[in-house]
Design a protein that fits this description.
Belongs to the acyl-CoA dehydrogenase family. This protein is an alpha+beta fold and 353 residues long. The chain is built from eleven helices and nine strands. The longest helix has 34 residues. The chain starts with 7 loop residues before the first helix and ends in a 10-residue tail after the last helix. The model has no long low-confidence stretch (mean pLDDT 93).
Length: 353
Amino acid sequence: MVLALLNDEQQMLREMMGSLAGSVGAGNPRDIAESDRGKGWAALAEAGVLGLRVRDGSGAPTGSGVEVMIVAEALGGALAPLPYLGSAVLATELLALAGAPADLLQRAADGAERHAVLLTRDLSGVAAADDLGGAVAFDSWGAAHGLALADGRRLVRVPLDGAAKPRPGADLTRELARFTGPAPAGAEEIGRPLAPADLDRWRALALTAVAADAVGAMRAALDGVVAYSKERVAYGQQIGSFQAIQHMCADALVHCEAASACVSYAAWAADAAEPADALLAAHTAKAYTASAALDVAETVMQVYGGIGHTWEHVAHLYARRVLLDRQVLGDAGHSLLRVADLRLGEGPGPEEG
């Protein structure tokens, strides 16, 4: 396995994102409602991270999968209520692979225009443009259009205004909207048909980014509860001195490190490996992270005890974030089946984008 060893520029990006994510994140449920999302989105645009997957003159993306991973982990850990995953990664990558007009991609990189990918009802794949009933616009804050696939290959842009109704989800930091009727008027085809390799490449990056978001949330949640265990006193002792607490936190740390290693390799493979190999790495990372993230979130809630189960505390926000991450583009079982197909040389099977 090749792990993504960060170069100097990527280390600087990680440090910068640590600071930036903290300024746009949510420390409790009230912060989500009171946050200035427009200002936060502008800050991400100014930092240049919204345009990482826009292609340069050579056709290569401006930023690598490793850099996308760095940003996604930081924003996931900060519980940022901004559609980086949905707009800057999933949607922009689809648009770029389809050869969307340069001015449209530039508006996305500048933060002036946002798109949301339309997922199937169970969130496991990209919705079909001719059957949007029940389709879900993922991470859709501020998005004017949704992206779907026609005939499994042609990218279609669909107006969201008035067609997709906001729906509450488990994750309070990201918005979802659902189509309740037929496709609205005004849909348009964007770019050229996507080749199977393009769709594999897109799904590999998308799975990796979603898993990276979960890793960031896992790490931040565990760091917070470990710090709490050094201060909370019960029976005259810091609870962090109790062996049961130590073992729970140690097991959670193992999950975090293993998930980080899987995602790190998948992030490198997203650009450097062949599409099928990149997809295998991404499904492996998603399968492990989808399972491990829930274990870590549950451990964190248990160590916090009663305070961690209150609405005002941040613990449930981490749990809600990873609950959504584990479902987007398929849960652990879905990815394990795809890993089996790829390992057996049978191809990934139909993944609906």
